[in-house]
Amino acid sequence: QVHLVESGGGLVQSGGSLRLSCAASGSIDNINDMGWYRQVLGKQRELVATCTKDGSTNYGDFAKGRFTISRDNAKNTVYLQMNSLKPEDTAVYYCFADVWERGRWGSQHYWGQGTQVAVSF
Known about the structure:
The chain has 121 residues and is mostly beta strands. It has strands at 2-7, 10-13, 18-26, 28-39, 46-52, 57-59, 67-72, 77-82, 91-101, 107-111, 115-120. The N and C termini lie far apart (40 Å).
């Protein structure tokens, strides 16, 4: 079993910044892809940014130029630096990891509990 614990969400004014963190723990051999998705009530969950172990990144269009994802592989931790935040960024942000576990064939998808980001006018 693997657990993802998120932190760093909160309330910020338009134009401000937040830094989210997500730490994975448990029976981990390797984390291939790791990153963030977000969801607004009544809408589908959407990609924010992901990063592979070797550093390849993938961003949602709304995040390009404003958000930066990074990883500390030694700590099994992923970060999301969010700058120039807009009210439309308000959502629950979920950490995601594609994990190879000890003694198990194939990878498994894990999700964090979600952390609220609210951007005011």
